[in-house]
Amino acid sequence: MGKSGRDWTQIYAIYGMDDWQTPIFLLIHAIIFSSLSIIFLHYFNPICSSIESLFPTLPTAASRFAAGFTGSVTALSAVCLFFAAANITYSAVSLRWDMAQRMLSAVPDWSTVKHALDVGCGRGILLNAVAMQLKKEGSSGRVVGLDMRKTALSTLRTARIEGVQEYVTCREGDARRLPFGDNCFDVVVSAAYVHKVGKEMGKKTAAAAAERMRVVGEVVRVLKPGGVGVVWDLVHVPEYVMRLREMKMEEIRVSERVTAFMVSSHIVSFRKPSHHMVGSSGEVRLDWRF
Asked: Which fold has domain 108-271?
């Protein structure tokens, strides 16, 4: 049971998993390695004899060591694969929900939020968490979910199940070129998404890093002066912090380390300075119809 009062079965029943193939792949291989380790344990002496027949000059102690070492490595590999499958499943369901609740707490006053944006909304866990917070505060605000994939129908279905469909709309678009004007949103959030941008250029290349920085720049651009940005992401958060400092953002805060998807992750939150004017100001009008 998570901090939110929901267990993983409830969350999974509504949202499912985006990348269910990975834990299944890991689980299958964990079962294979477990079976091999059991075979090594059950047929240890015959395996030692086979090694001795293949390498007649090898001492008996060495053949037993080789069989025992191989069996141990196989068993350890099975344990690691089981752990990886469990961690990825947990990260995609329960942890993602719990991190969404933590991200909400980084915004000091939701009652004044009129326009919010979730960059890389996926199936809508964070998107709907924002919508539920707006509903709880009695706000007339709305939240836009943006994703490059055509997931709008499934995302709106989850919003309907959560009872917040009137607070949510979806747009298809590229986070590197957000389809919104300057100074549009009071709050911009993103969960475990920015690290995926530019992966086609190589995970550790300068080009990929530049693409991620473009996303950070776009988040700042569409925030209203005084608006709050909250990003939970994997591995690259220190890069985002450096970029935010270069852009003179205020109240930059980084959470403690949380292991997600087998790597380190952090939440970074910041406020856009009230005097930070990227473009023209004025009343913002957004079309909430899907």
From this structure: Rossmann fold (3.40.50)
